From TrEMBL:
InterPro entries referenced in this protein's UniProt entry, alphabetically: bL21-like, bL21-like_sf, Ribosomal_bL21
Statement: the UniProt record of this protein carries the keyword S-adenosyl-L-methionine: no
Keyword Cell membrane: no
Source taxonomy: Bacteria, Candidatus Yanofskyibacteriota
Organism: Candidatus Yanofskybacteria bacterium RIFCSPHIGHO2_01_FULL_41_53
Role, per record: This protein binds to 23S rRNA in the presence of protein L20.
One cellular component term from this protein's GO annotations in UniProt: cytoplasm
Name recorded for this polypeptide: Large ribosomal subunit protein bL21
Family recorded in the similarity comment: Belongs to the bacterial ribosomal protein bL21 family.
Amino acid sequence: MTFAVIKTGGKQYKVAEGDVLSIEKIEHKDEKIVFDQVLLTSDGKETKVGKPLVSGAKVEARVLEDGKGKKKMVFRYKSKTRQRKKKGHRQPYTKVQIVKILS
């Protein structure tokens, strides 16, 4: 089984071909994205570990959609002073499907 560990949006993801994952929103012009920050690749026989990145390794992905996550409520409160503040937040994301891992 071929898999890789990529870094995007300050997070690391273990991905294999065909995986669908939601990542932090990234700006894109096309339907295809190439992740070049690959930390580890493995094809079942050989594992390459980067120091910190694997040289020449890339992961190609296809953009499925851009959207917003579920709403999280934030409530700040101070007792005895009638101070309260309520607001919501929806984190933007980009949903991608991994097409090919090039190691």
